[in-house]
Amino acid sequence: MKRHLFLVGGWASLAVGAIGAFLPLLPTVPLVILAAFCFARSSPQLEAWLLSHPAFGHHIIAWREKGAISRKGKIAAIIAFAFSIVLALLFAPWPWMMAPIIAAAVGGSWIWTRPEG
Fold first, then answer.
1. How far apart are CA 31 and CA 35, in angstroms?
2. Is the pTM of this model over 0.90?
């Protein structure tokens, strides 16, 4: 049963990550890394496919080995945070406009302190 739940979780993460490739506020690479985590516990073939994927394989390996995020990924995350803050300031009422600002401060500082890989 546990294996099946990880398999479903892996496919769900991969599906949402694929949607995130087209929507600017959904993070693709973290969801693909989560899919690899789930596939490692449910399907070695799918995990191997993700690890050898030309676009995502090196991100997954860098994260597993060093907890590393590429400079390009860090910059993309900061841009997405900035975009979210601008949208919140334009459209969200007080105090809800503070949520993206707090998330950006916490998440952005954590992302920026990760090693680069």
1. 6
2. no
